[in-house]
Design brief:
Distance between the termini: 27 Å
CATH architecture of one domain: Orthogonal Bundle
Radius of gyration: 22 Å
CATH superfamily of one domain: Sodium:dicarboxylate symporter
CATH class of one domain: Mainly Alpha
Strand content: under 5%
Number of helices: 20
Shape: globular
Structural class: mainly alpha
Helix content: 55-70%
């Protein structure tokens, strides 16, 4: 834990920085995760050089990854419930209310910003081409259940969905996904600009928007913070599940960055449930992409509807792989776009891993910001528990660095009571 030991790094007063210790290299436990991602991508690319692989062989390649996902999913519900209980148990009602309000303000603000950024990029780049509808078709799935499927299902069911972090499983997931693409060149050529738009939006949001918000509130180095959550980012990239990444995110924030356990246990489960920045951006881009592909011109009201619906749909999306494809139906229906064209996006659904990694980064930055804003309250709670007078309050939350954001600074201070 990181509730105030002498050796625990803090996001303290002026001049203090996020730090894990004397080195800024990734923690040793992230090395196997990195190797899993790299090996999965390498072997997946090598398998594509071979003749078309048998469907059963692809199932076998992905099988260890399926086991990993079941293991990760087992503890999602117990972990969320127990984390919320432990987080609330260490706080009084006023402190927990303030933290919850700050988290909600941050999460909803960044989700709206992500959706708006996606709309701006897709309207600027205009990746939708009507020729894509005729050039790309939905692949038919074989619904027959083979004896191999039945046997592997039996083995899967022998494993309760337990939490075991396995680089081998991550490598299996990525390798199977790459090897299973029927024509990678065709997908890249026909949906390339769509993928570029989504990837660029996620990059800008994760590398520019979120760090600027973090720096504006805390005046601390956001990239040192990034180094501390490197393993959580890798795990999200491999598993495509923000809820499944929660145990790693807890460890990164508490052990690497010294964020108070009471904050992480309260804020992160909420973030994994409702904070889907990457999903909101992806859904906004996908909806307008489908409109462009069908030569449908959206007016300002419809574009605003797409942004709002993408925000709301992302909040309601489950924190599991490919949940964004399900909530896409809500957005397309809201603006009267053809829902059958979602099938075109299935070919590039591996982008789910990228947007999940941004979701986890957003959750982590949110926990860091809430911790920074809640230091005085946490110190007061500790003082009351130890029977000593509370320490003087910490300096006020710093103003944002540009003039128009003064309003946001006031919102943060209002959320803090």
């Amino acid at each position: 834990g990181a509730e105030g030991g002498a050796g625990s790094p803090e996001l303290g007063g002026r001049g203090r920085r996020w730090s894990r210790g004397p080195t800024h290299s990734p923690p040793p436990s992230s090395v196997p995760s990195s190797l899993g991602v790299i090996l999965g991508a390498v072997f997946g690319g090598l398998l594509r050089l071979l003749p078309p692989l048998d469907e059963d062989l692809l199932v076998l390649i992905s099988f260890p990854g399926d086991i990993l996902m079941r293991m990760l999913k087992m503890l999602i519900l117990p972990l969320v419930i127990s984390s919320l209980i432990s987080g609330l148990a260490g706080l009084d009602a006023k402190s927990s209310g303030h933290m919850g309000t700050r988290a909600m303000v941050y999460y909803m603000s960044t989700t709206v910003l992500a959706a708006v950024l996606g709309v701006i990029l897709v309207l600027s780049i205009h990746p939708g081409n009507p020729k894509l509808k005729t050039a790309t078709g939905a692949a038919e799935r074989n619904e027959e259940v083979s004896s191999l499927d039945a046997f592997l299902d039996l083995i899967r069911n022998l494993f309760p969905e337990n939490l075991v972090y396995s680089p081998f499983g991550i490598a299996s997931l990525i390798c199977g996904k790459l090897a299973g693409l029927q024509d990678l060149e065709l997908v890249a050529r026909q949906l390339g600009m769509y993928m570029v738009t989504v990837a660029l939006g996620l990059l800008l949001h994760g590398a520019l928007v979120l760090p600027l918000i973090f720096f504006g509130v805390t005046r601390q180095n956001p990239f040192a913070f990034y180094a501390g959550i490197f393993q959580a980012w890798l795990t999200a990239l491999g598993t495509a599940s923000s809820a499944g990444t929660l145990p790693v995110t807890f460890r990164c924030l508490e052990e690497n960055l010294g964020v108070d356990r009471r904050v992480t246990r309260l804020v992160l489960p909420i973030g994994a449930t409702i904070n889907m920045d990457g999903t909101a951006l992806y859904e906004a881009v996908a909806a307008i992409f489908i409109a462009q592909m069908n030569n449908i011109a959206l007016d300002g009201g419809q574009i605003a509807t797409v942004s709002l619906t993408a925000t709301l749909a992302s909040v309601g999306a489950a924190s599991i792989p490919s949940a964004g494809l399900v909530t896409m139906l809500l957005i397309l229906t809201a603006v009267g776009l053809p829902t059958q064209d979602i099938s075109l996006l299935i070919a590039v659904d591996w982008l789910d891993r990228l947007r999940t990694s941004i979701n986890v980064v957003g959750d982590s930055f949110g926990a860091g910001i809430v911790y920074y804003l809640s230091r005085a309250e946490l110190a007061a709670v500790d003082a009351r528990a130890e029977g000593r007078p509370p320490e003087p309050p910490s300096p006020k939350v710093p103003h944002w660095l540009w003039g128009g954001a003064e309003v946001l600074g006031r919102c943060w201070r209002w959320a803090g009571g």
